[in-house]
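User: Hi! I have a protein structure encoded as tokens and I'd like to know what sequence might fold into it. I'm fairly new to this, so please keep things simple.
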């Protein structure tokens, strides 16, 4: 049976992944979506408009991969360079047909209202983008008060702050709708981490059920891989390279058709959980401390938690999340033993190791193929990786190298 995936579940997948960049606060994108929808309802927007707004709000920060950039987003109301991640998000989404409609909204979600009015931007795009901008800045202003339960005490100052930018940063109509909605305690209480999932679930259930096929899924996986790889210039192209190497090896081991495509998708998405790892840990030129290693070990489990929520991606979630497991059961995060480790997971692990060793890292230069093979042999002898796969690499070094580097 041909694979078909609910597009809305994939939108949530991207939203959860991008929210991971917040590290300690992983609900920013979803809170922005809730705030925007509550204001849109106050304005009487149609159900179709609300659904489009909801998707655009969930993905508004798709161009953010770095914890450094995220820190600016949540600590500053406005700053020079705020539009860079908007352009990045636009470039990622504009050529993916199922989400192309929201690309321009994402592009302008940090553009001031007075500038939108002086441009040739479609009025509807301007309206959607500016409401997301307003919701985004409301959430940033409220963030310091979520953890200590003091948010309701600070509502007047948040409202006053947004009102100061009425007509400059934000549309007067949108600010007025916010100020009216903000009078109800429920407007703020829904932002509690316990209630956000219910709101999101209700929106998903009410929305249209658009299905995408495997071709679209692969294109979306490439988009997500590019978001992950942008986390650090040291990992640029890593996920894309792992996807190529895994497909190359899997095809030679008799995996074909839709299953081969699924292996490639799992390889492209294997590091999605790394978005939650602080930049300083990923780019450390020194040997990781025990604490930093513990932080790093979270990423493959996060990959599993994100992917397994999408109906139809259960196998992909497992394969992607097992890329640090070992045949002797000494890997992580599940300590899976060899007889429980599928060939697809074993392939992705070898592809991940090979591609990483072929790239520059803060603590070493790229290794030549012969040295990569030598390290793979060492991992084979310590029962970390499948000997059959190492033998394949040994007899196909040129092909693996070309796949790893995209040459």
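Assistant: Happy to help. Inverse folding works backwards from shape to sequence: for each of the 407 positions I chose a residue that suits the local structure. Here it is:
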């Amino acid at each position: 049976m041909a694979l078909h995936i609910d597009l809305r579940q994939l939108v949530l997948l991207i939203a959860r992944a991008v929210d991971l960049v917040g590290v300690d606060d992983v609900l920013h994108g979803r809170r922005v979506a809730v705030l925007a929808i509550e204001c849109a309802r106050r304005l009487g927007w149609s159900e179709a408009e609300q659904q489009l707004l909801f998707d655009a709000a969930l993905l508004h920060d798709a161009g953010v991969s770095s914890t450094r950039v995220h820190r600016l987003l949540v600590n500053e109301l406005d700053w020079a360079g705020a539009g860079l991640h908007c352009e990045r998000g636009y470039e990622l989404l504009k050529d993916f047909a199922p989400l192309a409609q929201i690309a321009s909204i994402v592009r302008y979600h940090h553009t001031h209202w007075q500038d939108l009015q002086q441009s040739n931007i479609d009025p509807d795009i301007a309206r959607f983008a500016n409401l997301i901008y307003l919701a985004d800045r409301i959430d940033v202003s409220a963030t310091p008060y979520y953890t200590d339960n003091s948010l309701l005490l600070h509502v007047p100052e948040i409202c006053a702050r947004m009102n100061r930018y009425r007509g400059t940063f934000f549309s007067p109509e949108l600010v007025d709708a916010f100020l009216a909605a903000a009078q109800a305690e429920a407007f703020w209480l829904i932002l509690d981490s316990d209630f956000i999932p219910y709101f999101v679930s209700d929106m998903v259930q009410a929305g249209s059920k658009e299905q995408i096929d495997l071709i679209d899924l692969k294109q979306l996986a490439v988009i997500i891989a590019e978001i992950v790889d942008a986390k650090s210039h040291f990992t640029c192209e890593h996920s894309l390279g792992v996807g190529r190497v895994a497909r190359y090896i899997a095809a030679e081991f008799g995996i074909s058709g839709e299953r081969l495509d699924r292996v490639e998708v799992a390889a492209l998405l294997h590091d999605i959980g790394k978005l939650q790892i602080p930049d300083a840990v990923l780019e450390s030129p020194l040997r990781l401390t025990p604490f930093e290693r513990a932080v790093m070990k979270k990423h493959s489990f996060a990959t599993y938690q994100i992917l397994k929520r999408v109906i139809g991606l259960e196998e992909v979630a497992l394969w992607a999340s097992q890329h640090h497991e070992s045949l002797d059961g000494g890997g992580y995060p599940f300590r899976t033993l060899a007889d429980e480790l599928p060939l697809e997971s074993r392939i992705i692990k070898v592809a991940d190791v090979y591609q990483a060793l072929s790239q520059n890292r803060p603590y070493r230069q790229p290794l030549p193929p012969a040295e990569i093979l030598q390290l793979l042999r060492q991992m084979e002898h310590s029962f970390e990786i499948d000997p059959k796969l190492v033998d394949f690499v040994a007899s196909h070094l040129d092909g693996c190298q070309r796949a790893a580097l995209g040459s």
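A useful reference point when you look it over: The chain has a mean pLDDT of 92. Feel free to ask if any position seems puzzling.
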